[in-house]
Amino acid sequence: MTSASEHPLQVYARAWAEGDLRAMFAMYHDDVVFRYFGTHPLAGVHRGKTAAMAAMKDFSLRTQRQLVRLVDVMEGQDCGAIVSRESFAQGGTRLEVERMLRYRLQDGKIIECWVYDEDQRLVDSLVAQAPPTP
Questions:
Q1: 85-111, pLDDT tens digit by residue?
Q2: φ, ψ for residue 104 (rounded to 5)?
Q3: Is position 2 within any domain?
Q4: pTM recorded for the entire structure
Q5: How does DSSP classify residue 60?
Q6: pLDDT for the residue numbered 1
Q7: pLDDT for 3-60, tens place per residue?
């Protein structure tokens, strides 16, 4: 149960930590925009909930992304950020990367997300090497 005064990013972070994809996706505005940086095949702007969720799913499948832990959740009035530690698969090994996800909020939901990776070259390489998901 969430408090009426609980910041949307706290709700989102809890859902992420619990692996509750339904609750996570419910926090995205229908007009959400995701921005992935780098040179990998998914880099760029993904507009709308369907496109953004497809890009996130494709990224997760290509990298075998797993949340290690949430480092910090920062809250602003209409914005915020989450610093996460995540692991990605490369061959038979797992590599950890710190990521910062910056958010803009509208109507209590995530309307924009910018994804900043600690090691962009590594992420570019992992995504580029993995086959696209069907």
A1: 999 998 889 999 999 999 999 999 999
A2: -115, 140
A3: no
A4: 0.91
A5: H
A6: 41
A7: 568 999 999 999 999 999 999 999 999 999 999 999 999 999 999 999 999 999 999 9
Per-residue pLDDT for 132 more than 80?
Answer: no
Q: Which residues lie below 8 Å from residue 40, measured CB to CB, with a gap of 6+?
A: 123, 124, 125, 126, 127, 128
Domain span including residue 67:
8-129
DSSP at 13: H
Q: How many domains does the chain have?
A: 1
Three-state secondary structure call for residue 114: strand
> Does residue 1 lie in a domain region?
no
Q: CATH number of the domain that 20 lies in?
A: 3.10.450.50
Q: Is residue 109 part of a domain?
A: yes
- Residues forming a β-bridge with 99: 84, 117
Is 39 part of any domain? Answer: yes
What separation in angstroms does the CA of 94 have from each of 110, 120, 121, 125, 126?
29, 16, 16, 14, 11
Element (H, E) at 56: helix 49-63
